[in-house]
Amino acid sequence: MTPLTPTCESDACAIIADAAARRMPLAVAGGGTKAGIGRPAQTEATLSSAALTGVTLYEPAELVIAALAGTPLSEVVRALADRGQQLPFEPADYRALLGSSGKPTIGAVAAANVSGPRRIMAGAARDSLIGVRFVNGRGEAVKSGGSVMKNVTGLDLVKLMAGSWGTLGFVTEVTFKVLPRPERSATLALAGLSDSRAVEALCAAVASPFEVTGAAHLPAALDGGEARTLIRIEGFSFSVDHRLGELKRLLAGYGPAEAIDGERAGALWAAVRDATLLAEPHDSAVWRVSTAPAKGPALMAQVARALQARWFYDWSGGLVWLATDPAGDAGAATIRGAVATQGGHATLVRAPAEVRAAVDVFEPQPAPLMRVTRDIKAAFDPAGVLNPGRMYAGV
Amino acid sequence: MSIAFPVPDQAILARREEILRGLAPLVAPEALIVTEDERRVFETDGLTAYRKLPLAVVLPSTTEEVAAVMRFCRENGVKVVPRGAGTSLSGGAIAQEDAIILGVAKMNRVLEVDFANRTARVQSGITNLAISQAVAHEGFFYAPDPSSQLACTIAGNIAMNSGGAHCLKYGVTTNNLLGVTMVLVDGTVVEIGGEHLDAPGYDLLGLVCGSEGQLGVVTEAVVRILRAAEGARPALMGFDAVEDAGACVAAIIGAGIIPVAMEYMDRPAIKICEAFAHAGYPLDVEAMLIIEVEGSDEECEDTLARIVEIAQPFRPKTLRVSQSEAESAAIWKGRKSAFGATGRISDYICMDGTIPTGRLPYVLKRIDEICKAEGLGVANVFHAGDGNLHPLILFDINKPGEMEKAEAAGEEILKLCVEVGGCLTGEHGVGIEKRDLMRCQFTEADLKQQMRVRGVFDPGWLMNPAKVFPLEGRVAA
Ligand SMILES: Cc1cc2nc3c(=O)[nH]c(=O)nc-3n(C[C@H](O)[C@H](O)[C@H](O)COP(=O)(O)OP(=O)(O)OC[C@H]3O[C@@H](n4cnc5c(N)ncnc54)[C@H](O)[C@@H]3O)c2cc1C
């Protein structure tokens, strides 16, 4: 069926109001590159932001950019790069991982709260998102936040929209805070460390005064090669040199450190960001687990005792990407058990639809928070027409 | 006295004795404050022009006690105003005759510090500065630094999503908060977030932060602690024209430099702060910037050299890089005591709108005109990098009508901020102060959506009910 593609906000209002009146559930989509994430929802039509495109405001000196939701991420990235700026949170591109095509959109980057390695230093997409316009499930146009960096006026619905996966509103426009692109980026690589030693090194680096903006560990078992532990710093060249030297000294006890610059380092960080390291074999299930950094290795040790898995760490050990056998529950019981002991949450990012229908894709929450979650959904979308069931059954 | 309070619930006033008897067994005897003299201490906050005696004040020592009090209040239809240190500048912590104040000030301990994970779990009544002090021995600190940090609590910071002078680089409270323990209106205790990043489902933590005590009572928090930079150094720049200072800020950012702080003061503010702090501020300029950079000595020198070069075309009249720890401290002392120093010479109200920084010269000119039209003086201090203004409108409370004039000017200024594309409040919160201006910034649909979300947590409007949303046109859940 051809998607519904409103060309302006009031169009979107009319479409959603009509769907609500008829209780017709809509799949909310941007470029559709992340359509495979979430529980399979029973929808009757797709509402797409494809026809809402264009940068609507860009003030480099004020560090803000706004764009309509369907604007390709690449277009926003390019506009920023032309003025030597960037989205601080390093948005990921999951096309290779999910085997999807199309173009990721800026609205979906917000709605999915997608952040990459720099998240440990610069915050998540939700931290850079300063304003959003959306149409709620009643067909009302609503705004929250604005285009200034500091704003505490009223309840912060911007945060609720970030990471709501289209279940609370159809995002029509987003405004992000941006930052200068660093003059230089350098990566320090340690070799052959065990998970726990590696995460120890990463935590030491991140807890140093040297402003680490990327901290990842790729264990040997990931691709049969040697384990690599990566630490990235960025900034003015002069300062990068200084901090590189200091970090080498700080981490001397973890074996020789190689400094890598340029394209090789860039490719490695893109692979970490986009989780392409686990793209193959394409039929494995892929999980994304967030925990306290120092607990990552223990969590994975617990998982690995019960499951066949391949994994790597980002966020200083606090983000574990792992691939499992998609059979049965794809390891859900084991992984969620480990999360329960160590703290955090697990999301099933890639799995066949049957598995995503049977297993909680997003971490189940305690009853009082589940109650709040359901009621928030009803507060935005009482008829349940926007991506119903994509995050949780009945939400 | 132009801000209205709702009419107190007579039925609650009539049952006061019974309510006090019900509260008594829930907390230690000294934690229930009932006498008029003692309640007086809690009749206002940082917005001292407004005063209301609460029905009672309860100062629990544990999350369980908070839960018991909340359960009792809900069952008895008693309104609750959560309170930290009472430094809110928007009247957020002011209660009323039919509401109790539930203060968390006795819950002020550090529960756990984890340097490897860079987190600290604290009780919510701890002061902002005490968190930094508790981790300083390892070279760490808690980044958001409101000028009130010696007194204000993390509970208040979370409720207001407070900022500080250094948030250009480090963000505000919401960017440095990882988790909370919160008591819901029915006494249920929930844990939101934890030591990990990002939410499993909806970002409830992001919603709670900045919710001004309307969604529940925060009793514990997990905050991000950061390792301090190797060093920091401020520079002072004075300009003959406001436009030059504004353009200089834009040029620094345009060159790809994000200093850790860029603070602006105008001539009246410089004079007031210099008299108080003797920081060596230039007295012959229209505008002054405090620009601070971080890193090793060499890095600071390198960055400051770049900044100095960028500043040249804007003809800085004074340009001084701090040469010692003592000099840096004096420079910051002047800025951080701006409100206090102003308070010594005049009554004032402090505005807190944010504007797009490009509109700075225009807005400052208009602020001046607006205040002059009311016959009042104004001193401006603000966070220049992010456009968060703090005009201090000066008046004399003993002159009849002056306070009303100041409030009228304040209202004009905030409307101006919205008009140029900004907002009513950048960090002090809406409270009662800006409640009735919310319709300037938001449409009916915007406000209703917020109120429906509020209703998920507090359908009966028992939590801090007189705040944030205009009194008319409120929706139930
Ligand atoms: C001299 C001075 C300088 C200031 N400088 C700054 C500054 O630089 N930046 C800035 O952002 N602010 C500043 N402020 C404003 C104020 O200090 C902040 O808003 C602060 O966060 C309030 O903290 P508090 O503990 O005093 O909270 P209170 O004033 O007691 O309460 C503030 C709000 O929090 C709610 N609340 C309190 N405790 C809880 C709880 N446990 N659970 C839920 N809600 C709760 C209250 O209901 C109220 O709405 C300044 C104030 C003064 C007086």
Query: Any idea what the radius of gyration of chain A is?
Result: 21 Å
Number of domains of chain A: 3
CATH architecture of the largest domain in chain A, please?
A: 2-Layer Sandwich
Kindly estimate the percentage of residues of chain B that lie in beta strands according to DSSP: 15-25%
CATH topology of the largest domain in chain A: Uridine Diphospho-n-acetylenolpyruvylglucosamine Reductase, domain 3
- Total number of β-strand segments of chain A? 17
Query: What is the overall silhouette of chain A?
Result: globular
Report how far apart the termini of chain B are.
31 Å
Q: Helical proportion of chain A?
A: 25-40%
Question: Helix/strand/pairing class of chain A, anyone?
Answer: alpha+beta
* Unreliable stretches covering 5 or more consecutive residues of chain A: none
Measured by residues with Cβ under 8 Å of the partner chain's Cβ, the largest interface is:
A-B, 84 and 94 residues
Count the domains of chain B. Answer: 4
> Order of strands side by side in the largest beta sheet of chain B?
15-12-14-13-17-18-16
